[in-house]
Amino acid sequence: TVAQIVGDMLDNFASVQDLECRTITKTLFTREYQSSGRVKLADFYALPIDSEFKNSITFDEPKEILLKTGAAEERHLAPGGSKETLVIIPNYMLSRSNCMASQGIYTVCCLD
Hints:
This protein is an alpha+beta fold. The chain has helices spanning 2-29, 41-46, 63-68, 89-93, and strands at residues 38-40, 72-76, 83-88, 101-103, 106-108.
């Protein structure tokens, strides 16, 4: 049936999306700040993508959007120091910016 064919296509698409998500997560953890599950914003923007997804993955979301969506936070990393912005890896991975497709009734995003 048509529904079965569409379902199979979405399953295949989701598996490609999952592979891309794993690549993003692995890349983010290469720059993790002090085992905190976070990446300094400057490191986030400088991250290289060394995979077959290098043409489709970019770390370029504006700081304001990352903060507004809860994918980043500002905190003092040293007593008396200035605030720094840190990208929260799990929150970033589950954010809408990592959804590949959205068509009305469905959205293909990273798996939790």
